[in-house]
Specification:
It is built from 1 helix and 10 strands; from the N terminus they run βββββαβββββ. It has about 130 residues and is mainly beta. Strands 6-5-4-3-2-1-10-9-8-7 form a 10-stranded antiparallel beta sheet.
Length: about 130
């Protein structure tokens, strides 16, 4: 998993696995620096009754960010998750590139005028 966060290059070791009777995809990512500067685990599930994704993003910044749960409509080619933080919404856009067999993740924050602003972007490739 490689990308940029606020215009700085980053690299993570990442892996995913189905947990809790295959109800959630646990996606773990950890910075490759020693010691790691950042670590997070995303728990992505589906609420079939509401036809949407439910995502918990837990990271090394601790509990305050964990108070907010992200939601997004079910879709096949693109997953859009919105986290309604009190200080402003955050958006994750996951896209799968069928030709290259890799995922991309774009993270944006919403400005007060409703425009989305770049925060981070990653490419997630499967280890062979």
């Amino acid at each position: 998993m490689k990308g940029t966060v606020i215009a700085k290059p980053v690299q993570y070791v990442a892996n995913g696995s189905w947990i809790l009777n295959d109800q959630f995809l646990a996606f773990h990512m950890m910075d490759t620096t020693i010691p790691p500067a950042y670590e997070a685990t995303l728990y992505l599930g589906i609420d079939s009754a509401k036809n949407e994704y439910v995502v918990h993003w837990l990271d090394s910044f601790g509990g305050p960010g964990a108070r907010v749960v992200g939601f997004g409509p079910l879709s096949g080619e693109r997953i859009e998750i919105i986290y309604p933080y009190p200080e402003g919404r955050l958006r994750n856009l996951f896209k799968y590139d069928l030709i290259n067999g890799e995922w991309s993740l774009l993270i944006e924050s919403e400005k007060s005028n409703g425009q989305w602003s770049f925060f981070a972007q990653y490419t997630i490739t499967k280890k062979h």
